[in-house]
Amino acid sequence: MYLENMEKTHIYILGIESSCDDTSAAVIRDGVLLSNVTASQAVHEAYGGVVPELASRAHQQNIVPVVDLALKKAGIAKEDLSAIAFTRGPGLMGSLLVGVSFAKGMARALDIPMIDVNHLQGHVLAHFIKEHDGDTGQPEFPFLCLLVSGGNSQIIKVKAYNDMEVLGQTIDDAAGEAIDKCSKVMGLGYPGGPIIDRLARQGNPKAYSFSKPHIDGYDYSFSGLKTSFLYSLRDWLKEDPDFIEHHKEDLAASLEATIVDILMKKLRQAAKDTGIRQVAVAGGVSANNGLRNAFHEHAQKYGWKIFIPPFGYTTDNAAMIAITGYFKYLDRDFCTIDLPAYSRVTLK
Fold first, then answer.
1. Cβ contact 135:148 at 8 Å
2. Which of 170, 82, 164 is nearest to 127 (CA)?
3. Fold identical between 3-135+314-330 and 143-309?
4. Mean pLDDT of the chain
5. What is the pLDDT of residue 189?
């Protein structure tokens, strides 16, 4: 069915990402990124979080122009595509359905293969995106990856692009979720990550102490920290109603330092126990300045070879979906048109 397509000189993969509130499309040729276009949704800022119904409607408006622009920036026609890779899950079901349905329709119209991608696997494989032919900055297998975002906090042992083992993960809130909720409690706005990060650069990370969990193994917990932050803030506000405004930089810095310390302590233990010194970070929270600094410090202290993604590949983007699709294409790992989207799943 796809024989003619597979005999093309180059492999062109269109990636489509629509798991949350960003509509993104990217084109990769033989593993090299040609375009990566993302349309974000500012409508959610007024609600302090993503509103699923609004997100899915915005995806419907954005998907066609975003894909069209990605193809134009890549300098190819849709007929040049070898396959279409799309985020099948996890994510918001309404948002996923827009991307999944579009990918199925376009692949069927072009008579080319479809490749379903696990969103979390895409974040990990963002480290393999090549920005030019001579790009050799990719990690070697096996490596450890700390995946931290609004919905996930995991330590993953990556043995191959299609062989990943979750060594530990959050048992409640994710790190990014805790940051967003604490930011909301402080009245700083949404999304909280960039706001806390910016304020933290101006504050004292040792100004305040918050509760740290004691969880066995490599698993994480951030609900206790969130509660500790809330109760501490409540007590301080009783003494000074303007406490947040007077101390927001120190609060942000102390919160960030606590979260980074929790994340890195478990990662250090995993690196020590496995003997793996190639260590990567991925996901939206990997854009955090404090976490990036911690990675550089650990590289010097423990001899790690670290991999930190460019800022454009930290948040949800189609480039990571396209590169994952490229690897799966090489293995002829295609999916059928009847596969549904899924909202919840973890890497196995």
1. no
2. 164
3. yes
4. 92
5. 82
**Residue ranges per domain, the chain?**
3-135+314-330, 143-309
Whether 4 has a pLDDT exceeding 90, the answer reads no
- Going by pLDDT thresholds of 50, 70 and 90, the confidence category of residue 41 is low
Give the Cα separation of 59 and 75 in Å (integer): 24
Closest CA to 29 of 68, 67, 83: 83
Would you give the DSSP letter of residue 255? H
Task: Please say if the pLDDT value at position 166 is more than 80.
Answer: yes
Q: Kindly compute the dihedral angle of the four CA atoms of residues 94, 99, 101, 106, in this order, to the nearest 10 degrees.
A: 170
Alpha-carbon gap, residue 242 to 248, rounded angstroms: 10
Is residue 5 over pLDDT 90? Answer: no
Adjacency order of strands within the sheet including 143-148: 163-169, 153-160, 143-148, 278-282, 305-307
Q: What is the CATH number of domain 3-135+314-330?
A: 3.30.420.40
Instruction: Give the C-alpha separation, 109 to 249, whole Å.
Output: 53
Query: pLDDT (tens digit, 9 = 90+) per residue, 247-262?
Result: 999 999 999 999 999 9
Distance, in Å, from the CA atom of 48 to the CA atom of 45, rounded to the nearest integer, reads 5
CATH 3.30.420.40 fits 143-309, yes or no: yes
Q: How many CB atoms lie within 10 A of CB 280?
A: 24
Contact 81/284 with Cβ under 8 angstroms?
Answer: no
**DSSP secondary structure string for all residues of 61-81:** HHHHHHHHHHHHHHT--GGG-
How many CB atoms neighbour CB 299 within 10 A? 15
Joined together, the tokens standing for residue 267 give: 């990662």
Quote the CA–CA distance of 54 and 50 in Å, as a whole number: 8
| Contact between residue 19 and residue 89 where contact means Cβ atoms under 8 Å apart | yes
pLDDT-based confidence at 144, cuts 50/70/90? very high
Mean of pLDDT values over 322-343: 96
Q: What is the DSSP letter of 170?
A: B
